[in-house]
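Standup notes
- HV: blocked on the assembly model, inputs below
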Amino acid sequence: MTSTMIGRQAVVVGAGMAGLPAARALADYFEHVVVLERDALPLDASHRAGTPQARHTHGLLGGGQRALSDLFPSFEQDLAAAGAVPLKVGLDLRLEMPGFDPFPQRDLGVTGYAMSRPLIEFTARQCLNRNANITIRENCRAQDLVMSPDDVTVSALRFVNGEGRRETLSTDLVVEASGRGNLTLGFLESIGQPPPEETVIGVDIGYATAVLAIPGEVPADWTAVMTFDTPARGGLAGIMLPLEQNRWIVTVVGRHDNKPPGDWDGFLAYARQLRTPTIYQAIKGAEQLGEIARFGFPASVCRHFDRLEEFPRGLLPLGDAICRFNPVHGQGMSVSAQEACLLHELLRRRAEETDPLDGLASAFFSEAAKLIETPWALAAIPDYAVPETEGQRPEDLEQRLAFSAALFQLAATDVSVHKLLVEVLHLLKPQSVLNDPDLVERVKGVAVRA
Ligand SMILES: Cc1cc2nc3c(=O)[nH]c(=O)nc-3n(C[C@H](O)[C@H](O)[C@H](O)COP(=O)(O)OP(=O)(O)OC[C@H]3O[C@@H](n4cnc5c(N)ncnc54)[C@H](O)[C@@H]3O)c2cc1C
């Protein structure tokens, strides 16, 4: 072992957008990292059964792009080489929201990429494959965890391999990035420890997504569009991004009893109901590629592992297993990648300690909770504005909504505030930067005049 190695073997469950960066983070501190994935993994950027959400629009925020680039230095170049479409956030993306059709388009110096979720995942997988001490084992379904004889440490994981045989892997650390957290919750139950408390926001959202060939004639003033409706109209939304191979992906989102249908005519009619005609006009004559995909998302769920008094050593859930965000805000992959960077940083700080794994989970949970605070609030507050949303609304909801509305108004007229707002929305800066007293005064000034 080199001096920075803290264990012989770590196992990651799930080769999705939390598992891939987490495996990379672990590879600097464990001699060997094994990623177990239940699916067969495609040799290109195509779909697989274990991530049905990947058929829908997946925006990668600036904070996620930065985190993935920290772990995989060639990530952006690899994406671009594979056909991801570069976007100047603020300029190329036409944002339509009540009061702004569109929000002023400006180059804020923030560049991102638009591409399919399978391309993001395939690119990250290829980056991971360049690490000699990481093995991805596909067609392997993790089943349960094994406690060491001293009853304090997770020491092994049992799984069923591609031939249907049961195997056991001994491990110093299991990172559960299965998207669901069932392994962790099942294990806590089996050893008589309580599950984490949960905050649940019942959003009851329906997604429908079409992929289209980009026609010859396209509007010159945008490359991507996001259209949002008022909370009173259920926050109806349309999101349209370019993809690799000269395609558009178009998602329409509704809630409760107004969810979008799965046939093309119905999809078009639904797109026509959006608050502006931009998306409908663009897609009405475009050629549809493949079927329309649908997805139901009942609730955002945040599990407060940081509030647990005890947690088994050698186990760490990460990504959606900790927190599932309302997907409309495009945060899940980015937060997962940031959590992987956090894990990397914690391992770096602890590598020289006598027992680096002692207390790792509680240190991770408390830092991860801070990291989740901003994206959770950014998604929760507008969700609570929709009358049918279920959950415990904050007492100051009206003030927060009024502040947010005034902040957008100020950002429309002030480039530096616009840039700051975009940096927060892209998880490049924490929401706390918006508490700057001078900024708060200016926002309040706008609110008073409105
Ligand atoms: C409709 C929709 C749209 C979304 N849009 C966006 C967006 O625009 N931007 C964004 O950032 N996020 C978006 N998200 C969220 C994003 O998909 C997730 O946050 C992200 O994929 C989380 O990564 P994960 O690794 O935790 O889970 P996943 O990426 O779902 O990966 C879990 C992996 O674990 C594997 N697995 C599960 N159980 C086992 C087992 N027992 N053994 C072995 N392997 C197992 C699965 O096959 C899968 O590969 C969206 C989500 C939805 C539902």
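- HV (later): unblocked. The chain is about 35% helix and 25% strand. The two ends are 64 Å apart (CA to CA).
- Next: hand off to the docking folks.
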